[in-house]
């Protein structure tokens, strides 16, 4: 089986080479290919683009290392790695190259491991040839027949566990004509991790097989740790530089909705293949898959890498930063202005029902809906952040303002709370609260409008307050 594969690979390679080189076909067959040793660097860095125009015999020495290190600040985990890093060391070859892969399983490791490269044409992708116990070295060769960005991973049983512990990386098979020049290249992979303790629970955490089977990751992170690409580890670029990111998902389970907040991908070589889509916001990358994204930051500041399945980003670690340096460009991105709404501005954007009624009505009648609109605007921009957009609150944290028995008992007194803030215990609809509501910096009209809005629209009550009454309350304070 192995022999057959090798034979046919050589035949194919020879004909491919001849086809490529055409007239200058005096070029040698495989045994005479120049031998190059693959340079291995730690992610997010990777070997430079290939400049040679002919095939080579590339020797790759990958060492499996089982290492204990932080998965989050103060949380340790035992990773299994290709080359000591998660993701494993990036391999970069050229279409038509012969790759001689050496896998070393260090004597101090506890388990057998192997490698399956998706860039290989042949059953198992090298898994059988490289399955070795600690203290051994395995070697096999394959011809990189098809260009693309491919995932490699350990394929030793239980495979899901080996991958979940960090055993994956990327191999780029560059097309024969090479890749377009860019200013910066980065290497990022997303992976899901399953620990017995909760997210950021301190100490050494064991792998949790049941959580893995249930596909309920404790961590979803870039480059093997919460914070691997933030703070001092942030990626960097200058405005107007062309950035290429080789992005992969090791998994074992979770598909990424890969997005960078604050930029648009100029090009996405989706699924790591040879075609690209332009002007993309978010690209979906499956477990065991990849994408090459290219973009050009234009203005200074932080771009944020996320899995746009956002609780993974904000609650499981899938966040990275790319810090962009350069001068401000207000024509592309301005700093913006914020100011309170005036009654006239609100009247302009008053909802349709008011307009219909106002058509042939007297001004006095039209005033009520605009006050209502103002109350809603004040609510949306000042209260909704805590009491929620639907005013139902958050049980035990922020009391509801809609259907609040507390509010309904003395609605007019609620202006005191808005003016002065409130803390201490309080019971709304039978639920106890003990929070802090900060005093709201609003004028008399706004306070009257928001209280009347809450009373009429959210509690089936009457308007209860005029701006003058609020002004009097303010004086008494
Ligand atoms: C920063 C969060 C926050 C904001 C913003 C906020 N509130 Fe509150 N609010 C609270 C908390 C917390 C309580 C409960 C305080 C306590 O436990 O004593 C509360 C209580 C109240 C209550 C009494 C309880 C009830 O449910 O009837 C009213 C009325 C109220 N807020 C109105 C408002 C209005 C109107 C606004 C906007 C103008 C607003 N709040 C903005 C946090 C907030
Ligand atoms: Cu393994």
UniProtKB/TrEMBL annotation:
Compartmental location: Periplasm
Cofactor binding comment, as recorded: Binds 1 Cu(+) ion.
Domain Cytochrome c: 370-458
Keyword Iron: yes
Cofactor or coenzyme needed: Cu(2+); Cu(+)
UniProt key word Hydrolase: no
EC number: 1.7.2.1
Superkingdom per UniProt: Bacteria
Quaternary structure annotation from Swiss-Prot or TrEMBL: Homotrimer.
Protein family (similarity comment): Belongs to the multicopper oxidase family.
Protein known as: Copper-containing nitrite reductase
């Amino acid at each position: 089986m192995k022999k057959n594969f090798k034979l046919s690979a050589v035949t194919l390679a020879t004909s491919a080479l001849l086809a490529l080189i055409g007239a200058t076909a005096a070029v040698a067959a495989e045994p005479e290919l120049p031998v190059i040793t693959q340079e291995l660097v730690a992610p997010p860095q990777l070997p430079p683009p290939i400049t040679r125009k002919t095939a080579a015999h590339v020797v790759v020495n990958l060492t499996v290392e089982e290492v204990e290190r932080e998965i989050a600040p103060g949380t340790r985990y035992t990773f299994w790695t290709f080359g000591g890093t998660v993701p494993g060391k990036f391999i970069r070859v050229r279409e038509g190259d012969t790759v001689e892969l050496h896998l070393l399983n260090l004597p101090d490791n506890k388990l057998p491991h192997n490698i399956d490269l998706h860039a290989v044409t042949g059953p198992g992708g090298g898994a059988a040839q490289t399955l070795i116990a600690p203290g051994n070295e395995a070697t096999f060769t394959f011809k990189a027949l098809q260009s693309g960005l491919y995932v490699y991973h350990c394929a030793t049983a239980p495979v899901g566990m080996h991958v979940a512990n960090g055993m994956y990386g990327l191999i780029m098979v560059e097309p024969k004509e090479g890749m377009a020049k860019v200013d910066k290249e980065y290497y990022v992979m997303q992976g899901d991790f399953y620990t017995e303790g909760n997210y950021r629970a301190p100490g050494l955490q064991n792998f949790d097989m049941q959580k893995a089977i249930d596909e309920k990751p404790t961590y979803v992170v870039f480059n093997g740790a919460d914070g691997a690409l933030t703070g001092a580890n942030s990626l960097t670029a200058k405005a107007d530089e062309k950035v290429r990111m080789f992005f992969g998902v090791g998994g074992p389970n979770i598909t990424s909705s890969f997005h960078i907040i604050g930029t648009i991908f100029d090009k996405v070589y989706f699924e790591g293949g040879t075609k690209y889509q332009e002007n993309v916001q978010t690209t979906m990358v499956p477990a065991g898959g990849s994408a090459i994204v290219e973009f050009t930051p234009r203005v200074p500041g932080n771009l944020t890498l996320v899995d746009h399945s956002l609780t993974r980003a904000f609650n499981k670690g899938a966040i990275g930063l790319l810090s962009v340096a350069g001068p401000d460009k207000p024509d592309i991105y301005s700093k913006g202005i914020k100011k309170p709404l005036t009654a006239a501005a609100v009247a302009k954007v008053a909802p349709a029902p008011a307009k219909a009624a106002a058509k042939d009505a007297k001004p006095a009648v039209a005033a009520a809906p605009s006050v209502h609109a103002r109350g809603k605007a004040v609510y949306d921009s000042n209260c909704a952040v805590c009491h929620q957009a639907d005013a139902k609150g958050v049980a035990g944290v922020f009391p509801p303002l809609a259907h609040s028995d507390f509010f309904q008992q003395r609605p007019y007194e609620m202006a005191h709370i808005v003016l002065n803030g409130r803390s201490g215990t309080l019971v709304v609809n039978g639920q106890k609260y003990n929070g802090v509501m900060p005093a709201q910096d609003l004028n008399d009209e706004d306070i009257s409008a928001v209280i009347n809005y809450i009373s009429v629209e959210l509690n089936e009550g009457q308007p209860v307050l005029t701006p003058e009454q609020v002004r009097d309350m303010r004086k008494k304070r």
